[in-house]
């Protein structure tokens, strides 16, 4: 039993010793690399300093630190480059904002133009509605006036009207008996044309008036 525990302890000690040796070798390699790199950087051994600096400046983490050294720049030059980079970034953002502002202005102008067109159309429609209301009021007055006349006299008045659409509207709003008696007294061709107009939708006559 004691021999088994002794063997187990020996294996564990051997394993730990190997790990320590491995880490020790890594540390020695790292230190050797640091010494070699430091010697090249400080003493330019074999003229390898420029090439080493270029290699180190390409590394992701060390690049920003090594690159100025590789390019042999002063702290003032480095600061100036950083300021110029920030200025360029600001200029780009300002340009983007200007472009967005111009796009917004164009949209606003387009919206204003559409609003003006809509307002103009609305005004035209309101004017048209006013005229239609006036026309309808006038037609109803004429209907009331002509219905009190004899059919023969009403027919003569309607026949002499220049606007056929007005004649159609008047006859359409008359009582059927009165409008029929007037149409019977008209020229058959004229009466047929008026009947065709009366048969059409009422909105078409109002809009064409």
Automatic annotation (TrEMBL):
Which parts of the chain span the membrane according to its record?
21-43
Stretches of the chain forming a coiled coil according to its record:
80-142
Q: Which UniProt keywords apply?
A: Coiled coil, Membrane, Transmembrane, Transmembrane helix
Domain Magnesium transporter MgtE intracellular: from-to ranges: 141-208
Stated name of the protein: Magnesium transporter MgtE intracellular domain-containing protein
């Amino acid at each position: 039993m004691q021999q088994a525990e002794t063997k187990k302890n020996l294996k564990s000690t051997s394993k730990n010793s190997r790990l320590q040796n491995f880490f020790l070798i890594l540390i020695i390699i790292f230190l050797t690399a640091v010494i070699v790199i430091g010697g090249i950087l400080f003493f330019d051994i074999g003229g390898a300093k420029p090439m080493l600096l270029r290699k180190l400046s390409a590394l992701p983490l060390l690049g920003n630190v090594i690159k100025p050294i590789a390019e042999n720049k002063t702290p003032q030059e480095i600061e100036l480059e950083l300021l110029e980079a920030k200025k360029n970034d600001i200029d780009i953002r300002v340009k983007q904002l200007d472009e967005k502002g111009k796009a917004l202005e164009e949209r606003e102008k387009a919206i204003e133009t559409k609003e003006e067109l809509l307002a103009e159309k609305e005004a035209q429609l309101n004017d048209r509605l006013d005229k239609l209301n006036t026309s309808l009021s006038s037609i109803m007055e004429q209907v009331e006036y002509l219905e009190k006349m004899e059919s023969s006299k009403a027919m003569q008045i309607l026949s002499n009207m220049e606007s056929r659409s007005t004649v159609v509207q008047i006859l359409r709003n008359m009582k059927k008996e009165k409008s029929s008696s007037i149409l019977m007294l008209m020229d058959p061709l004229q009466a047929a044309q008026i009947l065709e107009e009366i048969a059409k939708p009422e909105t078409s006559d109002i809009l064409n008036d």
